[in-house]
Amino acid sequence: MCAYDGTGFSGWQSQAGGLAIQDVIEACLARIFKGPVRIHGSGRTDAGVHARGQVFHFDAAWGHAPEKLLAAMAAGLPPAIQIRSVRAVAAGFHARFAATGKIYTYDLHLGDADPFARPRCWPVYRPLDFGAMETAAALLRGRHDFGGFSARRGPGEEDTVRTLRRLAITRRGRRVRITAEADGFLYKMVRGLVGALVAVGEGKLTPARVAALLEAPRRTPEVVTAPPQGLFLERVIYAARPAADAR
């Protein structure tokens, strides 16, 4: 499991220029294992998006304790990327396909944030109606077609039905956090949900209109994609703790 500050990276997935989180971790592993190592993440995060609990796996022979690999990776990665834990898993485990859900958080700030928080939140300068936002969040929870709150990655049909288990809004002073948990997320879905909730809070959308967008799931300009810097992948959920091979 790893955490990273996505500022300055082109996202999780490997890019031709080598500026993705995956590229940096693979380069570190290649130095340790003296050869190319391909890692497989639980999913992609976009440029500028952060993670506190991204999970990835790879296949390689390692004859030492996991703690030794953790130390070796810590020494070879930049400060913006931290490997939080390492362990051996069964041969059939896959970080993406074994996942049963994910939790994301999105940080807003009412008014301008200080220089330390500003790079990792969305400052909102208009007053927000939190009652209306809560009403809209309740309508969004459950199993729906979220095509109207996501973006297409490319040509082709995609199943856009997901179960949104949790969509919660918490506030502490001028800091506002939106937490979303689902069995899976579509491309830019969390940022679309946040954009819609903020639009409701600002009076640009009504909760009834949000419900209508669920019934006719096509993306419209009414749903704004929230900027990436406030988004964090908090946790990847698995049905059971990945079991290590018996050795």
What is the structure about, briefly put?
With 247 residues, the protein is of the alpha+beta class. Helix content is 23%, strand content 25%. The protein folds into 2 domains: 2-97, Pseudouridine synthase I, catalytic domain, N-terminal subdomain (Alpha-Beta Plaits, 2-Layer Sandwich), CATH 3.30.70; 101-235, 2-Layer Sandwich (Alpha-Beta Plaits).
Please, could you describe this protein's structure?
With 247 residues, the chain is α+β, with helices and mostly antiparallel strands. The chain has 2 domains: 2-97, Pseudouridine synthase I, catalytic domain, N-terminal subdomain (Alpha-Beta Plaits); 101-235, 2-Layer Sandwich (Alpha-Beta Plaits), CATH 3.30.70.660. The chain has helices at residues 21-33, 66-76, 130-140, 189-201, 207-215, and strands at 2-4, 40-41, 50-54, 56-57, 81-83, 99-110, 122-124, 142-145, 161-172, 175-182, 231-238. The strands form 2 sheets. Strands 1, 3, 5, 6, 7, 8, 9, 10 and 11 form a 9-stranded mixed sheet that branches. The protein starts with a strand and ends in a 9-residue tail after the last strand. The mean pLDDT is 93.
